[in-house]
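Preliminary data (for renewal application), zinc ion complex.
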Amino acid sequence: MKTCLITTKTYQNHDNGPGHPENVNRVTSINTAIDNIKNTEWVETKNFSTKLIELAHDKKYIEKVNNSFPNNGLAFLDSDTIVSQGSKQASYDAVNSVLTAIDNVQDGSYQNAFVSIRPPGHHAHSNFAAGFCIFNNIAIGACYLVKNYNLKRVLILDWDVHRGDGTAEIISNKKNIFLISSHQYPFYPPGDGTEKVRGHFDNIRFFPLKAGLSSNEFHKIYEKIFIEIDKYQPEFILISCGFDAHKKDPLAEINLESIDYEYLTLKLKKYAGKHCAGKIVSVLEGGYDLKSISESSKFHVKSLAKI
Ligand SMILES: [Zn+2]
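Predicted structure:
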């Protein structure tokens, strides 16, 4: 079976203003890097009811976001989360792309999927935007798996270098969703990123990473993470796939090489094969050095596509 690749037609219309690290070039360079990889296929994004966003966000917040998109120029949802006129469709299409990927993997049409989208989502809380994120794409996807497919154990593995604080807040009281986040700590975002955070249903595991961490040290921590994954026996795996733990990333201080994303992906696939027939949907979050994210995403998608 092939790996499904999804992007949106509208990601280019989400404009954060000049000089912003979260810009169009990120997704464009990833899409170029992962194009034409053997055993992959681009798939069109389907439309879903916007009601599904309410699985993870308060109605009032969604209303606030809908009223925030300017007719021209830019508007601020928080100090670094900006919207332009085109952000509305881009945000909705990002969510639609994740749900399309989930349907395609869950119904067995594809072995797994990579979703190349912006805006990212994992810092978006149920009731506020933050850290370049408007809707929490991955949390909506996880809730959709529980609601639509009646899954009991959905795993989100967040290997973006920043803590998935929005995801943690949203899924904390959802007993069928389990979040593992590895993140540089102390660092952005503010709040508790220590191992003490466990969620209302003991459904969160945080793995704080010290600034300057090497690739080898990172692998050692991931050995513990894979034990947690094995114990949880997920029925479906979602990845909050940031590439910003790379040593060249300008927004963090962890020292992964591009090839580490091959190691992470292949190892995770082993556990996905054991517990959930290989079902993985990987969703782009951060990563801000264009060369590193191109290389890293290529390693990631090649590994996903490997039979
Ligand atoms: Zn990040």
